[in-house]
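Support reply, case 0932

Customer input (verbatim):
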Amino acid sequence: MTQPTIIGRARPAPDLLRTALMLAEHGIPALPLRAGKVPFGNCPACTGNACGGRPNMKTPGPCQCPGVCHAWAAATTDPTVLASALWATAWRQAVAVAYHPGGAGLTVVDLDTPAAVAWARGSLPATRILVTTRGQHWIYRGAMPSANAVRPGVDIKSRMAYARWIGSGTGSLTELPAAVRALVDREETTPARGGVVSSIPACGEWSVSVATGCRHTERYVRTGLERGLTMVRSHTESGASSQAFGVARFLAGQHAQCPGPCGLDVLAENIVAAAVSVGVPEPYARRAVANGLNTRHGAAV
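Our regenerated output:
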């Protein structure tokens, strides 16, 4: 399949739909982002993962729902879908446009800190670079599995992820290097059955006694935590580290408006333990969870 051509640097457009149609014309699947620069919630038929949770499937592919649903999977290059009446409400509420790198045959190395950028400059081949609000996106030609927190301040966005569109950057696209693929292979591989990754102490239980400044009920927090832990434990072959990052980020976001303390350290230990239980090396699990708590839900570029 012919790789899409990345268009020239784009200025912020008042008409987000026009930007999405422009991306689609160049073979780059697009979708709207709501306040917080996160995808719109699932459609009624899929709310609460009633459909099985399309984004959690191991094989990426387009969303089959007629409206904006299932985050990155909803991204499309079909102009009739983007401009359809079913998407019109989302566009009226949208604050930004995102694209699906993997759907365009691309991989984005998302560098969120100056230290991460310095690491990339010394470790990765030069390619198309886009300056973001917190760091840089290094864009390579070729798709691969996505993963968060593969090293401090570094996420990989490709087959099962979205990236906010803020321009195409500068420099020539180069082929996806083995050094980038190795980041996910090392982070996500589960050891052979029977192997010992690490042994961590039993986790404490979250309660209002450790969260005296939390505005949520104990039942609410525990229910959310258990759902998150179940998602982490379901990734027995790959992706548990990325899932742990996502759960930590989501839970931190729920407490963003609390006066605190909220006992997030207790929640973090439970998430780490869940990731370790399915084979993630403890240092990777702790780094992923720490990065998730620090990022806050929806704050990533």
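We compared this against your earlier run and they match. Two observations from our side: Strands lie at 30-33, 96-99, 106-111, 128-131, 136-141, 147-151, 154-157, 163-164, 174-175. Confidence is low (pLDDT under 50) at residues 5-14, 188-199, 296-301. Please reopen the case if you see a mismatch on your end.
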